Amino acid sequence: MNRFYLFFLSCLFLFSGISDAQDLQRCSTMEMDSLLRAKYPQLGTLQDFEGFLQQKIFEQDQLRKSGRVTAEVLTIPIVVHVVHNGETVGQGRNISAAQVRAQIETLNEDFRRQPGTPGFNNDTRGADIEIEFCLTRLNPQGQNMAEQGINRVNGNRATWTRNDIENTLKPSTIWDPDKYFNVWVLDFASSESLVGYAQFPAQSDLPGIPGNSPRNTDGVVIRYQSFGNTLKGTFPNMPAPYNQGRTLTHEVGHWMGLRHIWGDGNCANDFCADTPPQASESRGCPIGRVSCGNTNMVQNYMDYSDDACMNIFTNDQKSRMRTVMAVSPRRSTLMQSNLCGTFVANPPQPNFRAETQQVLLGGSVRFFDLSTNFPNRWYWTFEGGNPSTSTQQNPTVTYNQAGRFRVTLLVANSLGTSDTLKREAYIEVLSSGQCADKTNFSGTRTVIRDTSGRGYVSGHNGRGVLAVSEYFDNPLGYTTLSGATLRFGRAFAREGTNTEAIVNVTVWNARGFQGGPGAILEVKEVPLRTILSDIANNRATTLTFDRPVPLTLAGLGFHIGLELAYAGDTVALATTRDGEALNGTSWEQAANGEWDLILRRLGLNIAHDITAQVGMKPSVQLSTSALFVNPGESVTLQARGASIYTWSPSTGLNTTLGPQVIARPNQTLTYSVKGTGVDVCGDSAAATIYVRSVQVLGNEPTAETLLSRTTQISPNPSDGYLQIDLNNSLRGPVAITVYTMSGVRAVQRTFQKNTDEVRYPLDIRGLSGGTFLVEIAVGEDKIRKRIVKY
């Protein structure tokens, strides 16, 4: 069933031991993923990974169809780290070589769908993955191992917590993950009650991730009581029902990029079309179980069924795993290591890879040695790089000039020196990429109605959608977002064309559930009048944020979209037609506050017509103290990002030079500022100041309009400590009520207004971060304003 670097820990839990399948708990995949991403924010999201992988699956499929990629059986060298507490070999945690061999035989039977074994099935969806596993014959020094593929480690303790495994055991014992598939077999601490877990594959090694990062933890961890197969020998430390080797099969599936068959949610998506949706994990072997309108594939290795029940990987799962093995770091290099044969006494042969072959000016690239026959000396040269040479095994190089540059490597050991491996134009350094426009839109512009026909997918609709967004990836690590262009397809103003309504264009990080919108990074108020004018003139709405929005998690994605208020005004963004988007990038927030992909929720694969202006350099930014003023009323215009500023037109300005000017316009005007003196991405910005019509006697503003125009809430966004300023002639009791966006009353305060000017402090720091509506009522008159608490 159905974006990039994600560490994925998939686990099978027991409440009280390993003897009863009914004790199996829900997997802690998302918990462990959240912990690691909190430690290494550069790792990206599940959405990053899926966007990358789906595109690569398509590319690999096209290559196979064209005959440019031929099917071959892949062989992966395994090292099994048997972690014990001093026990004799074959006793307790120090499991025997026979038990290890039984497990690898089972793994091969399952991945090859071998006839005559429990790994075979008659399901037409079943697939031979054409991947085999061998116990490595050679250790990292090129020596033949005493026990093939087994590295016995005395951990000097009986049991291990996940924290100790990830921070101590793995980094101190791992063999080069570019050459060996590392598997640790140990005894988990009783507080863990685990059967096993795996590290999910990477989209790429992203710049900025420290060397002691997940590269030093890559592999699979299995409880020793579930490693082996009692059908292949007498292994008394392996109680049923997890005693036939399928724990490793399951976790290797994760290590190769597979999701749980139920998608870790109720009828959710595992991104493989030939695995039927199911409501949850299976227990025991409930063949014939029905959920989500389908007969569930409980025999699938990515379910939680008993070992004896499992026997199937599907063709789509095969395509996913084979693609990961072809394109993912520390997966694609394993088949080149040739560690299952006998050592040949020849000089080493050079080979290497780079974490990325495309980098922005001033960016850094880490190189990884993949040479065979165990070199111990390395001689690198980096055209255009700093340093230009290195003798480190895995050096990091910075590129400060644009172009395409050569990399060479020569390696040596006691048996001799290799020929020089030279790769011309291997690294591309982009200069124009310092500033970029990013969009996912490519297709026919339309305003699509949702599947119920009740409203617009991309804005206000009958389902009460609270917000819509478009996801943008950021693989090159742009650090700032300066502005955006949005194409609106529809807009309606309840109060007519002279409305003072505003629309909130919002930027979120992508740290929400499964890469959805997370924390709000910026909110820009755009007058609805501007949008109406742009639609009437068939042009997009262009905005500059008040400040450079920091994309602080370099290399990770972000969202741009709209927060929607249902006060009678209506806006809708233009999108592609259904099916024209390459990947699911459009999101919506339902009335209950939950975000989800529009593709998943409505079955519509669309992209919003939004363009993000990103860069590695600043842009000229412009903010205003007000958007609507009375004739001659002053408004402050503040520019940032350059050193010299020139303003136009001069009408109503106190000066045309400097970062800050005061404007007193008597009619609606658009003021522009041009910045010079520094190298910027965008050197100009503009803001329209709307001047209200002069009121005549007998046409005074109503009390409600007066309240709206004379009430300010600041700061916004805030940490929750607000000032509410009322500056009008209204008198009487004032009620302030704060509502969540789903309509729940969160805070209520009252006081008496006896003077024109009142400043009232409102403290909502006790509420969680998010968007709220503040209702202010003076007597019978009410207004509502939207605020953001971070």
From TrEMBL:
Q: Which UniProt keywords apply?
A: Disulfide bond, Hydrolase, Metal-binding, Metalloprotease, Protease, Signal, Zinc
Q: Has keyword Protease? A: yes
The entry lists its GO molecular-function terms as: metal ion binding; metallopeptidase activity
**Residue limits of the PKD domain?**
348-434
Xref: SMART domains: PKD (SM00089)
InterPro entries in the cross-refs: Ig-like_fold, MetalloPept_cat_dom_sf, Peptidase_M43, PKD/Chitinase_dom, PKD_dom, PKD_dom_sf, Secre_tail
What is the superkingdom listed in this entry's lineage?
Answer: Bacteria
In terms of SUPFAM superfamilies, this protein maps to: Metalloproteases ('zincins'), catalytic domain (SSF55486), PKD domain (SSF49299)
Record-linked Gene3D superfamilies: Collagenase (Catalytic Domain), Immunoglobulins
Pfam families according to UniProt: Peptidase_M43, PKD_4, Por_Secre_tail
Its GO biological process terms? proteolysis
Query: From which residue to which does the signal peptide run?
Result: 1-21
Its family remark reads:
Belongs to the peptidase M43B family.
The UniProt entry, under NCBIfam families, shows: Por_Secre_tail (TIGR04183)
- Name used for this protein in its record: PKD repeat protein
What species is this protein from? Answer: Rhabdobacter roseus
